[in-house]
């Protein structure tokens, strides 16, 4: 499926129970969560590689993928380890200028 599909629909007994990317559905099955995070630079310049590296150091993060990067804005998909909820840690890290 990963080779041919961008989106997957799962229907159970005639009812739509899930629609998402193959990757996100696999992550859900493992008990992980995936969060889209947009980071914007205050003074124009933003080094996406530095931000990605720092996001990877947040406790509970298993993987960070750069999805889009333009001028002073970058979008990342951040995946958690199994049974870890990273949204709070990501939010705290994003408000801390030293953390991110």
Relevant terms:
100 residues, alpha+beta, 3-stranded antiparallel beta sheet, two-stranded antiparallel ribbon, 3 helices, 5 strands, globular
Describe this structure in words.
With 100 residues, this protein is α+β, with helices and mostly antiparallel strands. The chain has three helices and five strands; from the N terminus they run ββαβαββα. A three-stranded antiparallel sheet has the order 3-5-4. The chain is globular and about 50 Å long. It starts with 7 loop residues before the first strand and ends in a 5-residue tail after the last helix. The model has no long low-confidence stretch (mean pLDDT 81).
Topology:
Elements: E1 8-12, E2 15-20, H1 22-29, E3 34-40, H2 48-56, E4 61-70, E5 73-80, H3 87-95
Antiparallel strand pairs: 1-2, 3-5, 4-5
Q: Between the first and last Cα atoms, what is the distance in angstroms?
A: 35 Å
- Enumerate the strands of the largest sheet in spatial order, edge to edge or round the barrel: 3-5-4
Number of helical regions = 3
Give a quick account of the main beta sheet: strands, pairing sense, barrel closure.
Answer: 3 strands, antiparallel
Please report which band the strand proportion falls in: under 5%, 5-15%, 15-25%, 25-35%, 35-45% or over 45%. Answer: 35-45%
Radius of gyration: 16 Å
Silhouette: globular
Sequence of secondary-structure elements = EEHEHEEH
* Global mean pLDDT: 81
Q: Which structural class should the secondary elements be placed in? A: alpha+beta
- pLDDT under 50 segments (min length 5)? none
Instruction: Count the E strands.
Output: 5
How much helix is in the residues? Answer: 25-40%
